[in-house]
Amino acid sequence: MSDEIPLGTLFTLLAILLILSAFFAATETALMRINKYRIRHLSRKGHREAKLAEKLLKQPEKLIAFILFGNNLVLFIAASIVGVVSMEIGGPAGVAIGTVVLTLVVLLFAESAPKTIAAIFPEKIALPASRIYYPLVKMMGPFLGIINVFTNIILKALGSVPNQNDEKLSIDELKTLIHDGMTKTSLDRQKIMMGVLDLGNITVEDIMLPHNEILGINLSDTSAVNQKIIQQSFYSNLPVYQETLDNIKGVLDLSNFLRKTNMSLYSNEMVLNHIHQPYFIPETTTLSQQLIEFKKKKEKLGFAVDEYGNIQGLVTIEDIFEEIVGDYLEETQKLNKEMRPRKDGDYFIVNAASNIRSLNRMMSWNIPIEEAKTMNGAILEKLGYIPDNGTEIELGDYKINIVQTKENAIKTLRIKEMDSKYKLKAVQ
């Protein structure tokens, strides 16, 4: 063969083949690692190479099949040339040496180095390469399709069928991605995204205003009492009921009522002419579902009911939005009023009516949440009775001292997160 083709030509051809192999390796890495959202953005702006790359990535199996076929073909020809040249120069021993040298050259210059560079600059490599790949992949489409068919048959026989759902991320995986990718994103944005993902795990019961805290218009009260409630209310809607909330008549839109009514002539009978039907929600409904229902039914407020139809609380669409976004400033101010650190910094004085989830979120605590939603409820649930002042209990990893009880509820308490030494002692 050397008599027919000069060695110089063979070495030149070998160099070209190695460059091609490096090209295949680099472009494969670049196309697989390129930011698909960035490509989609450039494509929509009319970037020609981005459009071609987007089309290629819609059928990644054909693209990979083409790259592997091309690279293997190139390396096969390169190995054949090295075998011929090595035999010509050094005989059988030369073939062994040539094989080793070719392997090292391919690993260093046609695999490792190109892929490393492509991983650093995927867009700069992938976009120009798409001009080359797109027509070739399209031309060889039928052939590549046949390769994929046989590949899937082999995978199926081995019990490894490709599953498109594998690319779908679980909620926990998404949370991890958000957490790990927050180096360039503000903490508030991270909380918002986490809040959206948590909506499916939080129910209406978790955020509702409890039955005993709902402010409304009791038609059994005098007009003077209810007039004062309306004029001083900070809420945009008020429940209207007779005697008890369970006998609810409707919901009063205050802005609409005040706009159409002369309050100097107020009477309870006027309220009944402006109420609309109440909207009831199962208390076990997830916030993600309830947000959809609010939008579908064009409601902003609903009454949470138990399995027997009894009203347990009230929830608004603003409550759900606050769960997502978090009114951080308001919540922080509220909690600052509810707690203050002692001089040693170990304890926090907390209002027992504080919501556990809010405390956990703002203080980075992990107080367990079961049936009860407030600290008062959690303590009463654990003890089964109203404790005396000075009573000490543990909730999860937290040491709690009862500071003040009044009548039938705990008013104030102290919270301290136990250190490892204390936990060990407590376990023993």
**Approximate helicity band:** 55-70%
Rg estimate, integer Å: 35 Å
Amino-to-carboxy terminus distance: 84 Å
Note the total helix count. 18
Strand content: 15-25%
- What strand line-up does the widest sheet have? 9-10-13-12-11
Tally the beta strands: 13
The largest pleated sheet is described as:
5 strands, antiparallel
- Quickly count the domains: 4
Going by helix content, strand content and strand pairing, the class is alpha+beta
Outline type:
elongated
Mean pLDDT: 79
Low-pLDDT ranges: 164-169, 327-344, 420-428
Topology:
Layout: H1 7-33, H2 36-44, H3 48-57, H4 60-120, H5 122-139, H6 141-157, H7 171-180, H8 187-198, H9 204-207, E1 209-210, E2 217-218, H10 223-232, E3 237-242, E4 244-253, H11 254-260, H12 268-272, E5 275-276, E6 280-282, H13 287-297, E7 301-305, E8 311-316, H14 317-325, H15 328-338, E9 339-341, E10 348-351, H16 356-363, H17 375-383, E11 392-395, E12 398-406, E13 409-417, H18 420-427
Parallel strand pairs: 2-3, 6-7
Antiparallel strand pairs: 1-8, 3-4, 4-5, 7-8, 9-10, 10-13, 11-12, 12-13
Helix pairs in contact: 1-4, 1-5, 2-3, 3-5, 4-5, 4-6, 7-8
